Amino acid sequence: MPDDKTRLIELLGVLSVRFGHFVLSSGRESDFYVDGKQTLLNAEGAAIVGRLVVKMLRDSPDPIVGVGGLTMGADPIATAAAVASTLDGGPHIDSFYVRKEAKGHGTEAYLEGLNNFPNRGRVVVLEDTSTTGASAYKAVERTRAAGFEVPWVLTVVDRQEGAAEFLAERGVEMRSLVTRAELEAARA
């Protein structure tokens, strides 16, 4: 039976990765497309991603109390990680969502789930697929503005097209579960 990372690469290859001609949300053209939600909304894919994210968080030398990111790409990852954190006997890792636009009523907040973090703390911003890093950084800025410390961003798939460098220039490390190179090697 393959380990979680190997199985995630297999699932991404079957459910999410396409080669051809695509226009990305950044406006860039690419011969490689990852629709990560197809794997993240698959029961097995969600369970695997949840376990892998929790393992990375637990391996962090400083405690991470939560995960979240821009809706909707980060939503299934945050939920999977929160659920997985309740199954391994360690401290629970709660989740939050970062809206693309402030809620137009009630609290008019950008972040949902803040009641789970009365003392705020260290959280990791999540992304399903990273190309430029701009979306992840928007989530980092909004999360920091809400009083959290964000030491790093975790993406499921790093397209290896500049996101890590963009974030590093802004003082944020990026880590990934899988890279484009790993997906291409599995395809060969």
Write structural notes for this entry.
This protein is of the alpha/beta class. It has a single domain (4-187), classed as Rossmann fold (3-Layer(aba) Sandwich). Helices cover 38% and strands 27% of the residues. The protein is built from seven helices and nine strands, in the order H-E-E-H-H-E-H-E-E-E-H-E-E-H-E-H. The protein has helices at residues 4-15, 36-40, 43-58, 75-85, 134-145, 163-169, 180-187; strands spanning 17-23, 29-34, 66-70, 94-98, 111-112, 121-130, 148-149, 152-158, 173-179. The strands form two sheets. Strands 3, 4, 5, 6, 7, 8 and 9 form a seven-stranded mixed sheet that branches. Strands 1-2 form a two-stranded antiparallel sheet. Helix 4 links the parallel strand 3 (66-70) and strand 4. Helix 1 crosses helix 7. It is globular. The chain starts with a helix and ends with a helix. The relative contact order is 0.16. The model has no long low-confidence stretch (mean pLDDT 92).
